[in-house]
């Protein structure tokens, strides 16, 4: 077994990942954001090019299966921009999907589906009958609920744990408005044995409770903050303070930052911003002023290299 980051162009050494946007979307289409789909390859490439021009070297696309992921387009963007792209398998909350699709995937075996996308290649489309491409997912994306877990979330998290144990893949979790992270940890780590070092707990800045953040950090999991976000602007002003508080409490090396661009309007190059470039143009300098260059390097380079790497147990 070799420790590597699995990108859409192949496995790379963790140290080669570079400055990383740890949670974003190049392609995304969900019913709740109708009319704001991220479905333009040229716009996606333009956004990544600006990010690269600011020193960005990698982006993790957390868009899971069935939500306009456009897996087949990701390798071309990676080649054109020179930016590593880590893609996700997995499934989001139930309301994003046709129940018939979820039933079919469940019958066929969710964990097996995730494993195939991690080891053989992702489906290039939003149905189980789509052709399988050669680009492999490098992470699993699943979701909790608002202050709790429903039956669907438990099934998805359980399947993600099984796929992790079969492959070593990291698991990124969407927490609705930043909530239910303790429930997720209890299930994935406490009951299903996923090591905290393989867990990326997302959107925590949307529930800016410092005490809860410290409790989550004590588990050893990675804490993924994203912002600013047009969809969740209310807590943006507390983002930096939350990062500084966790760093000062000794958890600097668990922190991740991503842009989480989910609408066309939110892109910097073809929309109204702030988009991916904001991470390096604005947030990194602020983080550097608050904690120093070494800390900024940890958040943007060293931590993602560990968070997205795995000892892959299958080819």
What is the fold's blueprint, element by element?
Blueprint: E1 3-7, E2 10-12, E3 20-24, H1 41-53, E4 58-61, H2 74-81, E5 84-86, E6 88-90, H3 99-108, H4 110-119, E7 139-143, H5 151-167, E8 171-174, H6 181-191, E9 199-202, H7 210-218, E10 222-226, H8 239-251, E11 255-258, H9 277-291, H10 293-307, E12 309-311
Parallel strand pairs: 3-4, 4-5, 6-7, 7-8, 8-9, 9-10, 10-11
Antiparallel strand pairs: 1-2, 1-12
Helix pairs in contact: 4-5, 7-8, 8-9, 9-10
Task: Explain this structure.
Belongs to the metallo-dependent hydrolases superfamily. Phosphotriesterase family. It is a single chain. The protein has 315 residues and is α/β, with parallel strands linked by helices. The chain has one domain (3-309): TIM Barrel (Alpha-Beta Barrel). The chain has helices at 41-53, 74-81, 99-108, 110-119, 151-167, 181-191, 210-218, 239-251, 277-291, 293-307, and strands at residues 3-7, 10-12, 20-24, 58-61, 84-86, 88-90, 139-143, 171-174, 199-202, 222-226, 255-258, 309-311. The strands form three sheets. The chain has a six-stranded parallel β-sheet. Strands 2-1-12 form a three-stranded antiparallel β-sheet. Strands 3-4-5 form a three-stranded parallel β-sheet. α4 (110-119) crosses α5, α7 (210-218) packs across α8 and α8 (239-251) crosses α9 (277-291).
């Amino acid at each position: 077994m070799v420790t590597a980051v699995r990108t859409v162009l192949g496995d790379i050494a963790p140290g080669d990942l570079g400055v990383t946007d740890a949670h974003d979307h190049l392609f995304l289409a969900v019913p709740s954001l109708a009319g704001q789909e991220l479905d333009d390859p040229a716009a996606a490439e333009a956004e990544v090019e600006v990010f690269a021009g600011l020193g960005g070297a990698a982006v993790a696309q957390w868009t899971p299966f069935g939500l306009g992921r456009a897996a087949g387009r990701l390798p071309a963007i990676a080649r054109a921009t020179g930016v590593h792209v880590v893609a996700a398998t997995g499934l989001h909350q139930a309301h994003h999907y046709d129940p018939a699709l979820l039933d079919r995937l469940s019958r066929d075996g969710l964990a097996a589906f995730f494993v195939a996308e991690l080891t053989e290649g992702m489906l290039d489309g939003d149905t189980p009958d789509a052709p399988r491409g050669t680009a492999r997912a490098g992470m699993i994306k699943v979701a909790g609920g608002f202050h709790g877990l429903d039956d669907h979330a438990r099934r998805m998290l359980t399947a993600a744990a099984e796929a992790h144990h079969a492959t070593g893949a990291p698991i990124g979790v969407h927490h609705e408005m930043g909530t239910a992270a303790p429930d997720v940890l209890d299930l994935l780590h406490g009951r299903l044995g996923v090591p905290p070092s393989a867990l990326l707990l997302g959107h925590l800045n949307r529930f800016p409770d410092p005490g809860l953040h410290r409790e989550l950090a004590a588990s050893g999991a990675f804490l993924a903050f994203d912002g600013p976000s047009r969809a969740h602007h209310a807590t943006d002003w507390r983002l930096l303070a939350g990062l500084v508080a966790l760093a000062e409490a000794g958890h600097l090396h668990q922190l991740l930052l991503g842009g989480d661009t989910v609408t066309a309007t939110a892109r910097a190059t073809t929309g109204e911003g702030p988009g991916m470039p904001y991470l390096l143009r604005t947030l990194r300098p602020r983080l550097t002023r608050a904690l120093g260059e070494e800390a900024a390097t940890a958040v943007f380079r060293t931590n993602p290299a560990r968070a997205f790497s795995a000892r892959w147990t299958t080819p």
